[in-house]
Design goal:
Radius of gyration: 18 Å
Shape: globular
Number of domains: 2
Strand order of the largest sheet: 3-2-4-1-5
Number of strands: 5
Distance between the termini: 30 Å
Strand content: 5-15%
Largest sheet: 5 strands, mixed
CATH topology of the largest domain: D-Maltodextrin-Binding Protein, domain 2
Order of helices and strands: EHEHEHEHEHHHH
CATH architecture of the largest domain: 3-Layer(aba) Sandwich
Helix content: 40-55%
């Protein structure tokens, strides 16, 4: 589960207010996204909203969260697990979470869709993978076993504690989710003019 967050030094309490602040102070705010999908999504969001915000690159997202808590950057798109400590200490405000449903461990935080900024919708998926030639009945059996384990209350609790949104499904559901996420990233890449390094 990804979170869109600001330093508590930034006097806003919603994504809408942050966007308004960025528009009122072009070129004066700094933002970062965790390397990979969050960083691409941040660039897409800034482009779509036409915000003049300086993107600060980080190799280490923990350092980015530390700098956010210290007020050295104003906005960070990262996993909720990285942001949680700063939120609990009051140094970071998580304005919205990625995805289409609220995070059970933080039900008071709206989704980016609810906040009105679907360009920040970022979902990453963990799954179990095997060779393409794996027999369908074996795939289905492994899928059922994984769903059964994840359905155990203690396992779910531990996953949620690390900032994971638990969604169980079989091979077909995973394939559909990955297809949707690939289409989303293709849109981001096309909008930002990114090309494959091949």
């Amino acid at each position: 589960m990804l979170g869109a967050s600001v330093s508590s030094a930034v006097k806003v309490d919603s994504l809408k207010a942050f966007v308004a602040l960025a528009r009122a102070q072009p070129g004066k705010l700094n933002a970062a996204g965790a390397a990979g999908v969050p960083d691409f999504t941040l660039g897409y969001f800034l482009h779509v909203e036409k915000l003049d915000v300086t993107r600060v690159p980080y190799k280490d997202v923990v350092q980015a969260a530390t700098d956010l808590a210290a007020g050295q950057i104003q906005f960070l798109l990262s996993s909720y697990a990285i942001l949680r400590g700063g939120q609990e200490s009051g140094r970071i405000k998580v304005l919205a979470v990625g995805g289409r449903q609220r995070f059970p461990a933080a039900p008071d935080i709206p989704t980016v869709h609810e906040a009105g900024f679907p360009a920040l919708n970022t979902e990453t998926t963990a799954g179990f993978y095997g060779p393409r030639s794996m027999a369908q009945d074996l795939r289905e059996r492994i899928g059922r076993d994984v769903v059964a384990v994840v359905a155990e209350a203690e396992i779910t609790r531990r996953l949620v504690a690390t900032g994971q949104l638990v969604r169980t499904g079989g091979p077909a559901e995973l394939a559909q989710t990955l297809k949707e996420q690939a289409a989303q990233m293709a849109t981001v890449a096309k909008t930002l003019g990114l090309k494959s390094g091949k």
